Amino acid sequence: MTAYGEKKMRVQRTWKVVGAKHSNIEQLQLELAAFNRCIDVLEKADANPQDIEVLTVHALTLAEQIDEVRWSNPAEALGWLLEKETRPAARKVSGAG
């Protein structure tokens, strides 16, 4: 097995633990922020672009999970949107804003 294949398997094993479905949006957002920090570190370290791509795909999947949980109850989603409109906060992460 190649070094890339071994790294990808490690990331996939980690993803199985981290990427498990949660009902708590805040927990999912914390996990997404952790993925984004890892991606930033790898980009600054000039790491293998394929490793960064694997983490990015997982971060996007996690962002989709956040959206699914958030929009599963339209009334709560509307409340969240209205609350967000009233407080100034810029978010970097997809799915967290």
Structural commentary:
The protein is an all-alpha fold and 97 residues long. The protein has one domain (3-9, 25-86). It contains four helices and no strands. α1 (3-18) packs parallel to α3 and α2 (25-44) runs antiparallel to α3. The longest helix has 23 residues, at 49-71. It is elongated and about 50 Å long. The model is unreliable at 15-22 (pLDDT under 50).
Highlighted features:
mainly alpha; 4 helices
Query: How does the overall form come out from the CA principal axes?
Result: elongated
| Backbone structural class | mainly alpha
Low-confidence stretches: 15-22
Count of strand segments:
0
The rounded Rg comes to: 15 Å
Order of SSEs: HHHH
Helix fraction?
over 70%
Average the pLDDT over all residues and give the rounded result: 76
Structure annotation, total helices: 4
Strand content: under 5%
Report how far apart the termini are.
Answer: 39 Å
Q: Largest sheet, described in full?
A: none
Question: Structurally, how many domains make up the residues?
Answer: 1
Q: What topology does this entry show?
A:
Blueprint lengths: L2 H16 L6 H20 L4 H23 L2 H13 L11
Q: In short, what is this structure?
A:
This protein is mainly alpha-helical.
